[in-house]
Design brief:
Elements: H1 10-16, E1 25-30, H2 36-49, E2 54-58, H3 63-73, E3 80-83, H4 88-98, E4 102-106, H5 123-140, E5 143-149, H6 159-162, E6 168-174, E7 180-188, E8 196-202, E9 205-208, H7 212-217, E10 227-234, E11 237-249, E12 257-260, H8 264-278, E13 285-291, H9 303-315, E14 323-325, E15 328-329, E16 335-336, H10 341-350, E17 355-359, E18 370-374, H11 377-383
Parallel strand pairs: 1-5, 1-6, 2-3, 2-4, 4-5, 12-13, 14-17, 17-18
Antiparallel strand pairs: 6-7, 7-8, 8-9, 10-11, 11-13, 15-16
Helix pairs in contact: 2-3, 4-5, 8-9
The structure holds thymidine-5'-diphosphate and magnesium ion (MG).
């Protein structure tokens, strides 16, 4: 297999581990409206600007609309060819004639294989046209990018049934009401699957978010109980995320835990450990735990921050604003080490944090970052510095 070539959109190249591989097929899946067409157009323009041929099959919008959008997003290189023929045979013929380096199909649900009777977008159609594109890509050494719409439950005919047919599956999703967009690889035959590309949807298309920690912490308010920051890993990149918790007394009724951006089972486990190993009455509260700003923290390293946030919420005591907490919590209440701790702590220090609650086994952090080593979650909670109430001014 030939070496990957960079597409020229850095966040995409990072997620792909270098770029697109000639002869491979990549599925870009996402909900309608998330920005798939915008991203593919920016990619297509970037590849074409580097002088390579790009063939874009426009099944969703008229080529004139696409040209207008491309012009709005930047210059339109002449090596970007847009066609609106959605017949799979015609697309293959165009690819044979032009031999582009990149073939973009927006979307796979609009392509039609005349040999298949059902309507475009049906399971048999999307499978058949994908099969044709896979064959043509391999034969011609072209990189093909297929756009596929999915709904929230992934039930729509399309991307899910294609995952095993293609080499790479990228998922594009975003905050429901915000501008942040995330590109993740779910399957990648030629590289890593744990890198995340982060973009802002702006008026001028998608822009890379160069400093995700800053982006996530920008709206943080100080002095609130139930908040602490966790240094997470997004692929190889450390990113700081605010963990928030709210505890509402149920006056006797059994409590319920609601989560956003974290794994509900981990939250339930941390809540149970807090109750049985640290004496917190978590069962008597409705608990809400959220990774702020639409972030996702699914790694166990987020456990300590979940515990600190819940404990702070129940106590009504804000944690000092310059504290981060990191560590996996075991059922015995022990705080366990996490991968790449030094890397995470450096990021915390860079962003102005000066105290870190870490597992007892933690290596030294950067100079200037005070480490509070704790063997158990009980020790960690006892060590967490609380916010010093502001001196009340003289009246
Ligand atoms: P689009 O790429 O068409 O989404 P998809 O192909 O996944 O359905 O873009 C969706 C939204 O993005 C659309 O509501 C308009 C918005 N948008 C911007 O905010 N800025 C832009 O520069 C562009 C091109 C689109
Ligand atoms: Mg689209």
């Amino acid at each position: 297999m030939a070496l990957p070539f960079p597409v020229g959109v850095d966040e995409v190249d990072r997620v792909l581990g270098g770029g697109l591989t000639p002869g491979s097929v990549t599925l870009l899946a996402g909900e309608p409206g998330v920005g798939k067409s915008t991203l593919t157009l920016q990619l297509a323009a970037a590849v074409a600007s580097a002088g390579a041929g790009v063939l874009l099959v426009a099944g969703e919008e008229a080529p004139s609309q696409i040209a207008a959008r491309a012009a709005r997003l930047g210059t339109v290189p002449s090596s970007l060819l847009v066609i609106d023929d959605v017949c799979a045979e015609a697309v293959v013929a165009e690819a044979e004639a032009h031999r582009p380096q990149l073939l973009v199909i927006d979307s796979v649900q609009t392509l039609r294989d005349p040999a298949v009777e059902s309507h475009p977008g049906s399971v048999s159609q999307v499978k058949a046209v994908t099969g044709r594109m896979v064959e043509a890509s391999k034969r011609l050494g072209i990189s093909t990018l297929l756009v596929g719409h999915v709904t929230k439950d992934g039930a729509i005919a399309g991307p899910r049934v294609l995952e095993h047919l293609v080499d790479t599956v990228l998922q594009f999703d975003g905050e429901p009401h915000g501008e942040l967009r995330f590109l993740r690889s779910l399957k990648h035959r030629f590289g890593p699957t744990n890198e995340v590309g982060i973009f802002d949807m702006t008026g001028d298309g998608l822009a890379a978010v160069p400093d995700p920690s800053d982006r996530y912490l920008r709206d943080r308010r100080s002095g609130l109980a139930g908040s602490v920051v966790v240094p997470t890993l997004s692929g190889r990149r450390p990113v700081l995320i605010e963990m928030q918790a709210l505890a509402v007394d149920t006056s006797g009724r059994p409590g319920h835990t609601t989560v956003q951006g974290i794994d509900g089972r981990r939250a339930a486990m941390v809540s149970a450990v807090l109750a049985s190993r640290a004496g917190y009455r978590t069962q008597g509260c409705d608990l809400f735990v959220s990774a702020a700003g639409g972030a996702e923290v699914t790694e166990p390293a987020g456990d300590a921050a979940i515990a600190v946030a819940i404990a702070s919420a129940i106590d009504g005591q804000p944690v000092a604003p310059d504290v981060v907490a990191v560590g996996e919590i075991g059922l015995g209440g022990e705080l366990r080490s996490v991968t790449q701790l030094e890397h995470r702590l450096q990021e915390a220090f860079r962003m102005g944090f000066r105290t870190a609650v870490v597992p007892a086994s933690a290596p030294d952090g950067p100079t200037g970052l005070r480490l509070l080593r704790a063997a158990t979650i009980g020790e960690a909670l006892a060590a967490v510095p609380q916010e010093v109430p502001a001196q009340s001014g003289r009246r």
